[in-house]
Each structure stands twice: as structure tokens, then as C-alpha cells.
From TrEMBL:
Entry keyword annotation includes Hydrolase: yes
Matches recorded under InterPro entries: ICL/PEPM, MobA-like_NTP_Trfase, Nucleotide-diphossugar_trans, PEnolPyrv_PMutase_core, Pyrv/PenolPyrv_kinase-like_dom, Pyrv_kinase-like_dom_sf
GO MF: hydrolase activity; nucleotidyltransferase activity; phosphoenolpyruvate mutase activity
Keyword match Hydrolase: yes
Annotated source species: Pandoraea sputorum
Keywords: Hydrolase, Isomerase, Magnesium, Pyruvate
Gene behind the chain: pphA
Protein name per its UniProtKB record: phosphoenolpyruvate mutase
Domain MobA-like NTP transferase positions: 309-427
CDD domains xref list: ICL_PEPM, PC_cytidylyltransferase
PANTHER family from the UniProt entry: PHOSPHOENOLPYRUVATE CARBOXYLASE, PHOSPHOENOLPYRUVATE PHOSPHOMUTASE
Family according to the record: Belongs to the isocitrate lyase/PEP mutase superfamily. PEP mutase family.
EC number: 5.4.2.9
Source species, domain of life: Bacteria
Coiled-coil regions listed: none
Length: 569
């Protein structure tokens, strides 16, 4: 017998070649049962070199009997999921071949098309019954008819390495050793690549005797479900090629499901089972969910790419103490709904769906519908960057960072997320925005490479710095940053993460705000594109702005019946 070791295979060996090498190798090899995609993956991760696609367990996971109640095409469809989920060679338990020689021919062609490495057929009569249910009463196939089926299968395979294993049921059906050997020899002569000799005894005696008398004519395969207490070395010494652990994953899953279902039903709570079952993240891992995320980055057009927003909403609102005793500023009602809801709805309208709000003061009062809440516990002593640091996955995708007290016309966020620049800031160029009001509570004056030409020259304008000083170095600001920063693309996100990490090492990090981050980016050489607007937004920084916000908000409501306040020029 030609006997290459599996490790002599080239890494590119097909699955059929891998199974063949297992059958022919000098060492004892093992197949582990799987019955669907996830179990096939688990078998691979456990370190097995091949899979037994068991008729019993595939039927069972469909909830039907091992009597060919599932059609052969349903089995083949199931195999497709298994072959997709695991790159291991799969040997199908093909029962009787699902019919006569002709059904066998078609089966082999379909299995090869789905990347299955081989099929095992048993010498019983379609529709079969599991060997452990009244095996003695089961009729065996006519030897010649079964040999014809083997030949038909071998003649149909396109790949020489595809294996056909012939399973001898003579011992199961009580026909004795002589008949078992006679049948095995006939199947071997008909072209079977290996013989599966099945036994339902508690001891391996008849298997060992068969192997001795067989004398290595072709590889032997066994299924020690009933004689499970036999030491594996006995199989080695008997010269067995391949051991099939035939049903243990389905049985393990069944015990676990029965116990968990009963526990949850009894106690009407998940508390006792959570730590005993696989995490949802583990399921995602087995499904290769990360690959999907990476593929999204590669294949989804920018317009469809997932977009996220981080809303900084930790503060109580300095000049709003009288209305924020029981809630943070972002939960103040404006024209019938909280400020935060206007903001979240505005983002969602532009497909910015992954929204993280960093709360602080009275974070417990924040409505978390449609958002993820992070909390800056030290909000009273820290600034905006300390809040930003609370967002675990900040800047892992394209993101808009926003102040929490903004109302804006929807085109502002639309244009911001559509900007192709690594960084984009929204700057209001109206005269009111740049007025040097001594009592203005927010003084994010923007100094830019050029003033707002209102689209006349289509020039690209870059931000130079944001300053609290309305005549920084004697200059007049070009506008006011409204509190929206867009970050886009791998390079932009990487630069932002780097600059942010550097700021975190500063002793005064806790006091830093968004303008310091933007200025640090500019100092790092980042090109920060300016998106000029002319009004069309509101901040809520004091009682007066709070009162006026309602008029602005009404103007965002379709057919509200209220003439919108003049919101821009
Ligand atoms: C199977 O796994 O479906 C088998 C092996 O055919 S046995 O159940 O032992 O017959
Ligand atoms: Mg079976």
C-alpha cells in the first residue's frame, strides 16, 4: 500500500487530496463529527484535520430521524455551509447513496462541486435506518448491486483524489465475520478507496479481528461510538487508518441546550446561565464578523460607509443653572423635545447612526434611545478632551465630533459628512458670529487661510487656528467655529489618534477643550478644511439662547405653521 504522510502534502493540496493522504498515512488519523457551519468551524479550531458529516447528526439538527427524512439535496445544501465555514476536508456519511447507481453518480458530481472530499456509502437499502436502531432487522444490499454503485461513483468523480469509502454493515446486521470480509473484499475490488467496518459491540474485539484478517488490503475506517472505552492505541496496533468520532458535538450541544433551556424556564432569568454559555462576541468571532467590517471599508462606497458621531454633553451649562437642576443641558426641552433629540435626529437623517454621547452632569437623566452613552465621571473638574477620552472606540471609523448644545439645518451635517478632507470644521462667517462680545460664553474664533467668498471662487480654505481672542495677533477672525469637526479616512483617523495620544501625556490634559485638539492637529501639519456657513445654526449657552432656540427648532419642523425665524443671511 502506498503510504504518504499527510505532512508531505503541498500547502495547496485540495481537500480531496488531504482526505486521501489521511486515509493512506502511516499514522492513525481522526475525523470529528460536524453537522452545520458553526460545528464545522469548531472542529477546525480544535485542531482536527478532517470532518465527518454525520447522517445521524445532520438529520438530528434538522429535527428529523436518521431515515433519509431529510432529502439528499437538503444534506448537500447543509454541506455547503460546512465547507464554507471550515477549510477542512469533509467526508460525507452518504447513507446508501440515496438510491441506485444513478443517484450515486449525481451525488458524487454534486459533492465535488461543493468541495466535499469524499463520501461513505453503506451496504443497506434506501431508505435506511441508523445502525444502532434494530440493526439485525435491517436488510443488507445485494453485493453486486452495491459494487455497481461503487463503480458508478468512481467513474463519475472528476478529481482522482475524491474518495469513496464502502461501509460494511454485515456485523451490525448479524451476518458474521465471514460475510463481512467477503463483502469488504468485493467492495475493494469494485474500486472503494477504503472500507468502513462498523460494529455495535461494547468491545472492539470483532473490529480487531476483522482488521487482523483484512491484513492491510486497503485502509480501514472505524466508528467506535459503542466501544468507546477501548484505548486508542488498540486501534493503532490493529492497523486502523482512520477513526471517526461520529456524533459527540451534537450530543454535547444537546446536553448544554437542555440544561440551559430548563434553567431559564425554571427561574425566568438569565442571571445563572450568562457565565456558563459562550458570549455573543464569541459567536461573532466564529462567524468571522470582523472580516465583514473590513470588507465594508473596502467595498462600500463612501456614501454608504458607516458613520459615527461623538456628542460632548458632559456639562451642566454654565449660564443655565436655574433650568438644569435635574438634568444636563442636552436634555433641556426645545420646541417639544430635548436638545439632544434634535441633534440625534439631525445626525440620523444624514445616516450618521452610530452615535456616542458622553454625558457627565446628571448623565442618568440622558435619554439613551438610539445612542450609546459614555460617562465622564470627573466632568466637574475636566474639559472636553477628558470626555472624548471616555469613548472607547473613538476615531476607529469616520466620525463627527459635536458639541452637545447645537441645533443646525440638516445641510450642514450633510456637507460635513460628504467632505472628502481628512479634517473638516464648520465655521460661521456671519458678522454676528465674529462680533467680539465681551460676555460671549463661547469664543471659538476661527482664523483661516482665506475669508468666506461665499462660493464665488471655489477655493479651498484651511483652518489655521481657533482662538478665544477676537483679534489674535491683530487679525480679524474669519468666523466662529460652531462646534462640529469631521474626521475622515485611515490617515486622518490615525493622525488624530496620534495627536490625541500626545495631548493625553500633557499635565494639563484634563483642562483641554476641542479647540486645543484642533490647534494641535494644525500644528502637526494636518490640513483642516473649512466649511463656511452663514448662520443656520444655534448654540445654547445661556438663557437668552435657550429661549431663542425654540423658534429656530420650529423652523426645522415640516409644515409647523410657524414662520421660521430668520436663521441666516
Ligand atoms: C452517523 O454518524 O450517522 C453514522 C455512524 O452513520 S452511526 O451513527 O454509528 O451509524
Ligand atoms: Mg449515518
Amino acid at each position: 500500500m502506498n503510504a504518504p504522510d499527510a505532512f508531505t502534502l503541498p500547502p495547496t493540496a485540495t481537500r480531496a487530496a488531504q482526505l486521501r493522504a489521511m486515509l493512506l498515512s502511516n499514522q492513525l488519523e481522526f475525523l470529528m463529527e460536524a453537522h452545520n457551519g458553526i460545528s464545522a468551524r469548531i472542529v477546525r479550531e480544535a485542531g482536527f484535520k478532517g470532518i465527518w458529516a454525520s447522517g445521524l447528526t445532520i438529520s438530528a439538527q434538522f429535527g428529523v430521524r436518521d431515515n433519509n427524512e431529510a432529502s439528499w439535496t437538503q444534506v448537500v445544501d447543509n454541506l455547503e455551509f460546512m465547507a464554507d465555514a471550515s477549510d477542512l476536508p469533509i467526508l460525507l456519511d452518504g447513507d446508501t447513496g440515496y438510491g441506485n447507481f444513478n443517484n450515486m453518480r449525481r451525488l458524487v458530481r454534486k459533492l465535488e462541486q461543493r468541495g466535499i472530499a469524499g463520501v461513505c456509502i453503506e451496504d443497506k437499502v434506501f431508505p435506511k435506518t441508523n445502525s444502532f436502531i434494530g440493526g439485525e432487522r435491517q436488510p443488507l444490499a445485494d453485493i453486486d448491486e452495491f459494487c455497481g454503485k461503487i463503480k458508478a461513483g468512481k467513474d463519475s468523480q472528476a478529481d482522482d483524489d475524491f474518495s469513496i469509502v464502502a461501509r460494511v454493515e454485515a456485523l451490525i446486521a448479524g451476518w458474521g465475520m465471514e460475510e463481512a470480509l467477503r463483502r469488504a473484499e468485493a467492495y475493494h475490488q469494485a474500486g472503494a478507496d477504503a472500507i468502513l467496518i462498523h460494529s455495535k459491540l461494547k468491545r472492539a474485539d470483532e473490529i480487531v479481528q476483522f482488521a487482523r484478517e483484512w491484513g492491510n488490503r486497503c485502509p480501514l475506517v472505524i466508528v467506535p461510538t459503542k466501544y468507546y472505552s477501548t484505548p486508542t492505541d488498540v486501534f493503532r496496533e490493529a492497523g486502523i487508518s482512520l477513526v471517526i468520532w461520529a456524533n459527540h458535538l451534537l450530543r454535547a450541544a444537546t446536553s448544554a441546550m437542555q440544561s440551559v433551556a430548563a434553567e431559564i424556564h425554571r427561574n425566568e432569568t438569565l442571571i445563572n446561565v450568562e457565565d456558563r454559555v459562550a458570549t455573543v462576541d464569541e459567536i461573532f468571532r466564529l462567524q468571522d464578523a470582523d472580516e465583514y467590517t473590513q470588507a465594508e471599508d473596502r467595498y462600500l462606497s463612501a456614501a454608504n460607509a458607516p458613520r459615527s458621531a461623538i456628542v460632548l454633553a458632559a456639562s451642566r451649562g454654565k449660564n443655565l443653572e436655574s433650568v438644569t437642576t435635574d438634568r444636563p443641558k442636552v436634555m433641556l426641552p426645545v420646541a417639544g423635545k430635548p436638545l439632544l433629540r434634535w441633534l440625534v435626529d439631525g445626525f440620523k437623517k444624514q445616516n450618521v447612526n452610530d452615535i456616542t454621547v458622553v454625558g457627565g452632569y446628571r448623565a442618568d437623566a440622558i435619554d439613551t434611545a438610539g445612542i450609546t452613552l459614555a460617562v465622564n465621571e470627573r466632568h466637574a473638574e475636566t474639559g472636553e478632551l477628558a470626555s472624548l477620552a471616555r469613548v472607547a472606540n473613538a476615531f476607529t471609523q469616520d466620525t463627527v465630533v459635536s458639541y452637545g448644545d447645537l441645533l443646525f439645518r440638516s445641510y450642514i451635517v450633510r456637507d460635513l459628512v460628504e467632505s472628502a478632507a481628512d479634517f473638516t470644521v464648520v465655521v460661521d462667517s456671519t458678522a454676528a458670529a465674529t462680533a467680539n462680545a465681551a460676555n460671549a460664553s463661547v469664543r471659538d474664533f476661527a482664523y483661516c487661510s482665506a475669508g468666506d467668498d461665499r462660493g464665488l471662487f471655489g477655493q479651498q480654505v484651511l483652518l489655521e487656528k481657533i482662538s478665544g481672542d477676537a483679534s489674535d495677533a491683530g487679525r480679524t477672525p474669519n468666523g466662529r467655529w460652531i462646534g462640529l469637526l469631521g474626521v475622515r479616512g485611515d490617515e486622518g483617523r490615525a493622525q488624530l489618534q496620534r495627536v490625541f495620544a500626545a495631548l493625553q501625556t500633557r499635565a494639563d490634559f484634563d483642562q483641554l477643550g476641542m479647540p486645543e485638539l484642533i490647534n494641535a492637529l494644525a500644528a502637526d501639519g494636518a490640513k483642516i478644511e473649512v466649511q463656511y456657513v452663514h448662520g443656520h445654526w444655534r448654540g445654547v449657552n445661556d438663557m437668552e439662547e435657550f429661549r431663542r432656540a425654540a423658534d429656530f427648532a420650529h423652523g426645522q419642523t415640516p409644515f409647523s405653521g410657524t414662520a421660521p425665524e430668520t436663521q441666516g443671511d
